[in-house]
From TrEMBL:
PROSITE patterns named among the record's database cross-references: WRKY (PS50811)
GO annotation, cellular component aspect: nucleus
Keywords for this protein: Coiled coil, DNA-binding, Nucleus, Transcription, Transcription regulation
Name listed for the protein in its UniProt record: WRKY domain-containing protein
Compositionally biased region (Basic and acidic residues): 1-12, 165-177
Coiled coil, from the record: 109-143
DNA sequence: CGGATTTGACCTGCGC
DNA sequence: GCGCAGGTCAAATCCG
């Protein structure tokens, strides 16, 4: 007779945990508690007891001895098959009954021990991988700073606007490094650009970091800094832009598409709903929210389900926060401001033209999985809008695409080592439960620290330097630890990339 | 009771 | 100028 795990209920688990002294702390301690119970079992006591030769759930009511049942429950809880003599078997003598029973229990215990050992090894493996991924993430953060500074230098030297020349330089560097190190993955090529920098360049980077802050003040912003910067003296490029630049900035939007069963995604901010409308062409109502984290915060967002696929939630952000934000929210807000910056700066001169065509060397270097992808900026929408697609189309990656949805492009390849998987991840609370793009559970720690990592490939450096990336990564990982809602984490990671992308164009 | 949500009215911009 | 659609307001209502 086999006992299915379906029969295992929560009270069984609780019973088991009470019996084992477990039930507190992480899986490891739980497993340890279970291990302890196995070793502490009193075989002789069981041998001397006179219980019927059955130990299934159904029979428990007739079996007053809880010790045996607890062990059976434990076996069931860890997926063992509990074997008991068939009911219709000829009754055995009392001595024979006990003997068979003891043998069965012994077998179960051995199986339990083996199973626990397996679980323990799996846990150890997961922790090791988490540690490795965190180290990798830290490495990326470090090296990103150097790469960013070098990229800014190139931009300055090349006049900033000649993107293709910069792409060539980056590509040349990547090739050079690949030859030197025999790197195999694109991710590594970018990550390891730092060693290729000379000491002179490194020192120049330090100088640049100050200049960068001046030259890109309006883009080197956390969410709360955006409006402050708007009132400060404009950068050279800003001064060259049209007078209604600020107004346009207010109107520009960033749209995030993501699969979610929840009413709205959890982006770390507090929102108050102030309206709802049925928009034309979509039977699903559009909800209007206002940020309530501070009085007078101008940030608003619209949340609407996609007409074609109602499992897709479209969240559109507008404006910039006038207050400090929690890490996850700050990262999300950076997405907005940075993406808007990218869009505006790009569209002022190259509206409706590809930013990263399939012929782009940089695109080829950074988009190895989508060689035919094209990045577009469209000016056809009422407001400049960038749409970030996190709906997780099979075999695809997060996509930035214009509001017109023309030829979506991929800009955020995960490294070979941290590929998105279909591992279940999410919360069933009132907020987001994402199923579209999910990261392997191996990327997460076993409950102690956030370890969601992806080797985000910086196509464009961020003027704020490694600190910004580190902060964002920190925000992402912290968000994992504090609130395992993956939405905020993923958004934070992507915003990190987008911030660099946007600022690099300024 | 206070904060959040709902919902109809109103405002505004745009195209014809 | 008119109508339409998107966006916002604010009173009513809900809910913990």
């Amino acid at each position: 007779m086999e006992i299915s795990r379906d029969l295992i209920h929560e009270d069984d688990l609780q019973t088991t945990e009470r019996a084992t002294g477990g039930g507190s702390g992480d899986e490891g301690s739980k497993a340890a508690g279970m291990r302890g119970t196995v070793h502490e079992m009193d075989f002789f006591a069981m041998k001397e007891s006179s219980r019927p030769p059955t130990s299934t759930r159904m029979d428990r009511a007739r079996v007053p001895d809880l010790n045996l049942n607890k062990e059976v429950d434990l076996a069931m809880n860890i997926g063992l098959q509990v074997v008991t003599p068939a009911r219709d078997q000829a009754p055995m003598s009392p001595v024979g009954n006990k003997s068979v029973e003891i043998e069965l229990i012994g077998l179960n215990i051995i199986g339990m021990i083996e199973k626990l050992e397996e679980m323990r090894e799996e846990l150890a493996g997961a922790k090791e991988e988490n540690r490795r991924l965190r180290e990798s993430l830290s490495d990326v953060a470090d090296k990103y700073g150097s790469l960013r500074a070098h990229f800014m230098k190139l931009l300055q030297e090349r006049g900033g606007g000649k993107l293709h020349q910069v792409e060539d330089e980056v590509t040349r560097r990547s090739h050079q490094l690949e030859e030197e190190e025999g790197g195999s993955t694109v991710a590594r090529q970018f990550i390891d650009l730092r060693p290729a920098l000379s000491a002179k360049e490194e020192s120049h980077n330090t100088e640049l970091s100050t200049d960068d802050q001046d030259n890109s003040a309006h883009t080197n912003l956390d969410a709360g800094e955006m409006e402050v910067a708007a009132s400060q003296p404009k950068t050279t490029q800003q001064q060259q832009q049209s007078p209604d630049h600020e107004a346009t900035m207010k109107k520009a939007r960033v749209s995030v598409r993501a699969r979610s069963e929840a009413r709205m995604i959890n982006d770390g901010c507090h929102w108050r709903k102030y309206g709802q409308k049925i928009a034309k062409g979509n039977s699903c109502p559009r909800a209007y929210y206002r940020c309530t984290m501070a009085d007078g915060c101008p940030v608003r967002k619209q949340v609407q389900r996609c007409a074609e696929d109602r499992s897709v939630l479209i969240t559109t952000y507008e404006g910039t926060h006038n207050h400090p934000l929690p890490p996850a929210a700050a990262a999300m807000a950076r997405t907005t401001s940075a993406a808007v910056s990218m869009l505006l700066s790009g569209s002022t001169s190259t509206a409706d033209q590809p930013l990263l065509g399939s012929n782009s060397l940089l695109a080829k270097r950074t988009l190895p999985l989508s060689s035919a992808s094209v990045a577009m900026i469209s000016s056809s929408a009422p407001f400049p809008t960038i749409s970030l697609d996190l709906t997780g189309v099979p075999n695809s990656l997060p996509q930035w695409r214009p509001s017109t949805n023309i030829d979506p492009f991929r800009v955020l390849p995960f490294s070979n080592g941290v590929a998105p998987s279909l591992a279940s991840f999410g919360h069933h609370d009132q907020q987001s439960h994402f199923s579209g793009l999910q990261m392997s559970t191996s990327c997460l720690t076993a409950g102690d620290e956030g370890g969601a990592t992806s080797e985000l490939l910086p196509m464009k450096p961020h003027p704020s330097g490694p600190r910004s990336l580190a902060e964002t990564v920190s925000a992402a990982t912290a968000a994992v630890a504090d609130d395992p809602n993956f939405t905020a984490v993923l958004s934070a990671a992507i915003s990190s990339f987008m911030n660099r992308e946007g600022d690099g164009r300024e």
